[in-house]
Every structure is written in structure tokens, then in C-alpha cells.
Amino acid sequence: MPRLPFVIAGVLVLAAAVLHFRLAPSAAETARVIPPPAQDDRAAESATATIVLAGGCFWGVQGVYQHVHGVTRAVSGYAGGATETARYDKVTSGRTGHAEAVRITYDPRQVTLGQLLHIYFSVVHDPTQLNRQGPDVGTHYRSTIFPETDGQAVLAKAYIDQLDQAKAFPARIVTTIEPGRAFYPAEAYHQDYMTLHPRQPYIVMHDLPKVESLKRLFPAAWRAEPVLVSKTGM
Fold first, then answer.
1. CATH number of the domain to which 215 belongs
2. pTM of this prediction?
3. What are the residue numbers of the active site?
4. pLDDT at 8 over 50
């Protein structure tokens, strides 16, 4: 009998967790069919380009882009803050200026920046949520594009304006564009997290549906075999 209160407490905690997952909107529910960008960078001369995107927890962002044809590397990390605070225990305070982000290296001859942004706004996250994504709250979960070139910034801004003018979402897009910010790779245990932990409850609820949405909405961009940091390096 002395253990009964602990059993009851455990049941209540489990029930609360189940209720949270039922009430929280899944990624499958937030995925949205939107028009592709009217402007795109199709005159690529280089075989390699990079863009850093933030859209909530980096596990899901990385997991999606690892399944995109033409992406050669996707690394989880931090961008927007200083070198000395680019650590998970500090970033999660929400006071470092960093956002959880993913540096995407891609072959512009196979996938364009416009196509990557199309996926970003459509299935990766909800760009109308300010400083949060689903259950994750704080500036470190903000929707942000960290362009590496002026051309990337111009294209991203034009696409945001296009989507807002088309009323592609029920609210205005809050995605910021923050050029000139350094990217810092995250700790090793955050890399390839979706592939390594496919049954983790958070992954099952919030991230695997994003990959399914990618496969469903962008079949031409889909690749079954993910490109993993364990094979490509940082």
C-alpha cells in the first residue's frame, strides 16, 4: 500500500502526457500546400552551396532535409549568437540570441534554393508561429533564415512577400532573415537524431510526420536513404 500514491501519480503523469500529445497539433496537420517561389536561382555555376535554416527543434529540420534529393550534408547546430554560448545547455535558456538551426549543403544543379525554401515553408515548420514551434517555446525555436549571400537574402525576402500577398497562410509569416551570422555545429548526440531514435515519442509525434509530408507533397524531391552526418562529417 505505501507505493500506491506513487502508482497513482505515475498514471496521472502518463495521462497528462497523452493529453498533451493529443491536443498538440502534429506536423502532418500543419503541412500546407503552397505555391513555389516565383523567383529562383537556376543559373548555378557551382556544384556546392549552403544555407542555414531555423524552424523549431533542429532534430526535425535536419531529418527532413536529409531526405531531400540534392542535399549532400545537413548538420544540426546553432546560429544567431556568440561563439561562447553555442552550447545546448546555454542555448536552451533562450537568452543567447542563438536559434536551433541546420546548415544545409546542397548541389544547386540538382536542387535549387527556391525548392529548399518551398519545402521549408510547406512541411518543415509553421512560419506564422512567433518564437515557438508546437510545444517548443522560446527565441531559440524561432523561424529564421540565415543567408550566406545577398542573393539568398533577396530570394528569401521575395518568397516571404509572395506567400503573404497570396495569403498562403491564415496569418502573416514571422520568419526573420538574419545575414552575417556564424553557424556552430551542435553536439554529436544531436546529429542524425531522427534516424537514431525513430521511436522517441517527440520524434514520432512531431518529426516523422514531416518526413511523411515531404514524401507525399514533394515526391520528386524525396530520397529514401538519408544523407547522415555519421557518413558525411560536420
1. 3.30.1060.10
2. 0.88
3. 57
4. no
